[in-house]
Amino acid sequence: MTKRDERTRQIIDQTIHLLREEGSEGLTLRKVAAACGITLSNVQYYFPGKPELIQATVAQFFTTCKELIQADRALVLPKDPESSKAFLKRVIEVLVVCDNQEFNVIFREIWALSSRDAALKATLEEYYRDYAQWMIGLIEEIFPQANEIVSLLIPYAEGYALVGNTVPLNRDKQVAMLVRLITEWPTAGRGVKGGSKVGIRR
């Protein structure tokens, strides 16, 4: 890791800490600089403004998730029911019903910021378009209805970040429910098509 990469990661880590502790209203480049022990101009060298810093924080979250999942994807055999189902469960645990409460808090704050910042909102929407296409590519070899599945999972993930701790089912049961819905989808994955056909009616 280069010195630039290390500094960038430090700034993003402190941004995450401030978002968690003080919320979006309390986040300023000056506070980030103080938390990092560097000057404001040094932070601005990497991130000219708050929108750029927030965008980099979002990108870092997605990059981390992708790295975790890509490592698991290499082990999946498309025609093997057990590995397909295990991989689907992993995708849902990491990308949808995420137990990283820190990032759940951060995403609430980022969406709050985006409601008042058109440029940030546009950036987030573009990230999600790219993210959706990445997820489709990730699972379409296993689940032919990848478009429908991703259209279910991404909004569910956003809703879970907001209210997941308040609904009747705990996290494990929510994961199991989503796995069951997808693997019982009509003509679902080639690797898991031996299951029940009691799926979502379209």
From TrEMBL:
UniProt KW keywords: DNA-binding, Transcription, Transcription regulation
- Asked whether the keyword DNA-binding is assigned, the reply is yes
Q: Which residues bind DNA?
A: 28-47
> For the HTH tetR-type domain, which residue ranges apply?
5-65
> So which domain of life are we looking at?
Bacteria
The record's Pfam families line, in alphabetical order, gives: TetR_N (PF00440)
**In the UniProt record, does the keyword Nucleus occur?**
no
Q: Name one GO molecular function term.
A: DNA-binding transcription factor activity
| Official protein name in the record | TetR/AcrR family transcriptional regulator
From which source organism is this entry? Dawidia soli
